[in-house]
Amino acid sequence: RMETDCNPMELPNNTGFEEDSDYTDFEGTDVKDMRLEAEAVVNDVLFAVRNMFVSKTLPCAEDVAYINVETRERNRYCLELTEAGLRVVAYDFDQTDDKLQTPYHETVYSLLDSLSPAYREVFGNALLQRLEALKKESQS
């Protein structure tokens, strides 16, 4: 995660950014970082699931983003992405269930590996194909 030298919350209130629409998102510079991280997670494993996207209805904050995922088995989950990792927070898109106490996973790979046997198979096959391609490259 990229660190910034300036904490936007420490800026004086009279910067005039509020009026200028180009800067309406300025206060949320860290929010974009967590959203970018979530987008990177999605792009990494999208090929191995049925559907996956960053939630547009649940709020992103400086330290959290939400990702909706539908596995190849057609199970839907809402994942929470924080500094602690990823965890399931609901069994449907754009939901959070405070009663749900699921473990954090360091990577999206281990989380999906625990949720979806089909993910494991597709991801494993992609890995094998990549290794075969590298092997052929090094032999030529």
TrEMBL record:
GSKIP domain residues are 34-134
Fetch the SUPFAM superfamilies from UniProt: Hypothetical protein c14orf129, hspc210 (SSF103107)
- Identify a single GO molecular function assigned to this protein: protein kinase A binding
Reading the lineage from the top rank, the first entry is Eukaryota
Q: Which GO terms describe its cellular component?
A: cytoplasm
Cited InterPro entries: GSKIP, GSKIP_dom, GSKIP_dom_sf
Q: What GO biological process, any one, is recorded here? A: regulation of canonical Wnt signaling pathway
* Gene3D superfamilies tied to this protein: Hypothetical protein (hspc210)
What's the family? Belongs to the GSKIP family.
Q: What is this protein called?
A: GSKIP protein
Q: What is the lineage of its organism?
A: Eukaryota, Metazoa, Chordata, Craniata, Vertebrata
